[in-house]
Amino acid sequence: MSDKHMTRSTPEKRPFEDAVSRLREAELRPTRQRLALARLLFEGGNRHLTAEELHDEARQADIKVSLATIYNTLNQFTKAGLLREVTVESGRAWFDTNVSDHHHFYAPETGELIDIDLANIAINGLPAAPAGREVERVDVVVRLKPAD
Q: Looking at beta carbons, which pairs linking 70-78 to residues 24 or more positions away fall under 8 Å?
């Protein structure tokens, strides 16, 4: 049989291939724990979660990792640009896998963050940054309450 009649299958991705690529592009060493947490964070699409929620997911997936390691990893991923930290309450941060420019609705009674497209909010009259500083980004959080 000639080569042109043979079918070649596309090689399947290795289980951690996307996570390894993402970490390497961010110049983070793909350790076992980082890989496991990256898969939990990024394989399900864009979402918002707290360190405690990720810790619970890791335990459910039988990933042995301390809450301190979760916090360290989330902070490393945020610093590397893989995550965006969103603080809406004092002492509690959410981590957003969508790092594009956008804003959020926040429902305090459920702890839910919902993305708002950047085009849906206009910000006028932003003051000039102090000398030696520049505006990195503007985060708008619209707090929700149950409708009467």
A: 70/37, 73/33, 73/34, 73/37, 76/28, 76/34, 77/26, 77/28, 77/38, 77/41
Three-state SS for 117? strand
Query: Which amino acid makes up residue 104?
Result: H
Tokens of 18: 């996307």
Other Cβ atoms less than 10 A from the Cβ of 102: the count is 18
User: Please, what are the domains in the chain?
Assistant: 16-143 (1.10.10.10)
User: Is 35 within 8 Å of 85 (Cβ atoms)?
Assistant: no
Q: Does residue 104 surpass a pLDDT of 60?
A: yes
| Residue-averaged pLDDT of the chain | 88
Helices and strands counted in the chain (H then E): 4, 6
